[in-house]
Amino acid sequence: MARPSSTSLATFDPPRVVDAPITHFDERGLGQESNNLLAIHSLRGYRALRWGRNVELIVTDQRSYRSEEPLDHAEAEPFFSGDFPEMMPEEAMVIFDAGRAYNDGQPPATIRYGDADIPNFRKADPSQTILGAEPLQWFLERLRTSKATWKIWGNTTATLDVRADPQNLPVGLTHPWPGAGYAGFGGGDHSSAYVERAEIYDFVRDHRITGFATIAGDRHSFWAGLAAKALPPQPFKPVGIAFVTGSISAPGEVEAIEHGFPKQHPLRPLFLGQAAADPKPQPTINMLLRHGVRSCLEYQKTGDIAKARAVSNPALSPHLSFVDMGGHGYVVVSASGTAFETEFVCIPRPLERAPGDDGGPLAYRVRHRAGLWRSSETPRLEQQVVEGDPRFWF
Questions:
Q1: Beta bridge partners of 212
Q2: Helices 133-145 and 194-206: crossing angle, nearest 10°?
Q3: Which of 116-125, 154-163, 357-366, 372-381 has the lowest mean pLDDT?
Q4: What's the Cα-to-Cα distance from 73 to each of 135, 154, 280, 349, rounded to whole Å?
Q5: Are 134 and 28 spatial neighbours (Cβ–Cβ below 8 Å)?
Q6: Which contiguous run of DSSP H or E holds residue 324?
Q7: Are 199 and 122 within 8 A, CB to CB?
Q8: CB distance 173 to 266 below 8 Å
Q9: pLDDT at position 311, please?
Q10: Residue 184 β-bridge partners
Q11: Which among 33, 155, 275, 278 would be 20 to 30 A from 195, CA to CA?
Q12: Which residues lie closer than 8 Å to 255 by C-beta, 6 or more apart?
């Protein structure tokens, strides 16, 4: 719920605005046309809420002040290929996000992708922003001054990186991966707003802020992990913990690929694997994001989860403890003076109404717990499967 800029919450009188071209942008990409600013400032979606000694929920607005998503430009289309569905070279995503700030102000004119040198259409543009300049400074100051044990970032999207390792595909399965290394899965949230996320996480580190946690939604999936500005081969230095909740009923990525992923595509086992003993395709996309392509192909070959995990790529996702791209349900969060705990409550896909008053059976319950860490320590997550068998998800 957004908060009207007026002093009353009872009514909202929208401002009078007219359509007008936006020709001038601030240093973070926000259009400075007066009608645009009037409309944006008429509703305020960011605020902080305090519960007792231990919890301050700092809610930010990821929609109103953001700059244009770089990967929505037509100039980014050459980096998307039907040979590698959903995947985008991570190095291009980093360059596009940073714009003219990349490489200390020396961005490349072109980006190598396979045999092609593709123009860097963002080399003169400012870095991408999700929060916008003014809300970002408000957020950082709120983090700095909070006296709560747990400073919880209520992020309406998500922050944890989404990537795969197609560079490790065996020769001959499909065309060689044209990227230089890892692949990302598009943008839209702080998982690919690398510059702004690094600014936030560096602020947390430099100000020795502990108890930094993020809770988010929007991905329609369950995630648990550590908040870090970069992954290997860059230094991996977590400064907090992060979680994403599944949706109650809205479809997620697994439903989408079940309906739309080509059945004869050579990379289908990375997304929907089906071993000989499986009665139906399994959500190996979770294994792809958590363990990598070799694990997915091993599962397709043997149907053995243990063997699949044994060939996991440890550099792919050291930030992740859990990912379920098809999970439905909710998350319960508990915070005390010494620990932060989440419980993922996942229900079977909600295609029919449960027959009983208890809501029907559960697919699984999984808890993650982090003890409060000192500023000199690295946050850690402990995992406990309370109920069910989420075998593809961690």
A1: 151
A2: 20
A3: 357-366
A4: 25, 28, 37, 34
A5: no
A6: strand 320-324
A7: no
A8: yes
A9: 98
A10: 88, 163
A11: 33
A12: 326, 349
Closest CA to 262 of 89, 82, 78, 392: 82
The answer to whether the beta carbons of residues 346 and 389 sit under 8 Å apart is: no
| The pLDDT value given to residue 7 | 56
- Residue appearing with tokens 């980014």: 76
pLDDT band (50, 70, 90) for residue 103: very high
Both structure tokens of 284: 């190996």
pLDDT tens by residue, 4-43: 555 566 777 788 999 999 998 888 778 889 998 888 888 8
Pairing verdict, β 55-59 and 150-155: parallel
Core vs surface per residue 150-189: b (16+ CB within 10 A) or e: bbbbbbbbbbbbbbbbbbbbeeeeeeebbbeebbbbbbbb
Rounded distance between C-alpha atoms, residue 29 and residue 363, angstroms:
43
Both structure tokens of 100:
């003219």
Q: What percent of the chain has pLDDT over 90?
A: 83
Average pLDDT, integer, range 77-88: 94
Q: Name, in order, each residue with C-beta under 8 angstroms of 315's C-beta and a sequence gap of 6 or more.
A: 231, 232, 233
What tokens appear for 16 in the block?
Answer: 């009078």
The DSSP bridge partners found for residue 366 are: 344, 385
- 129 CB-side CA count, 13 A: 22
Q: What are phi and psi of 301, to 5 degrees?
A: -75, -45
Mean pLDDT of all residues in the chain?
94
Q: How big is the chain, counted in residues?
A: 394
Choice among 42-51, 237-246, 265-274, 378-387 with the minimum mean pLDDT: 42-51
Segments in 146-271 forming alpha helices (H): 194-206, 253-260, 268-271
Half-sphere exposure of 205 (CA within 13 A, CB side): 14
Residue whose token pair is 């795969």: 164
Structure tokens at 389: 């068998």
Q: E-strand spans in 93-146?
A: 110-113, 116-119
Distance CA 351, CA 372 (A): 40
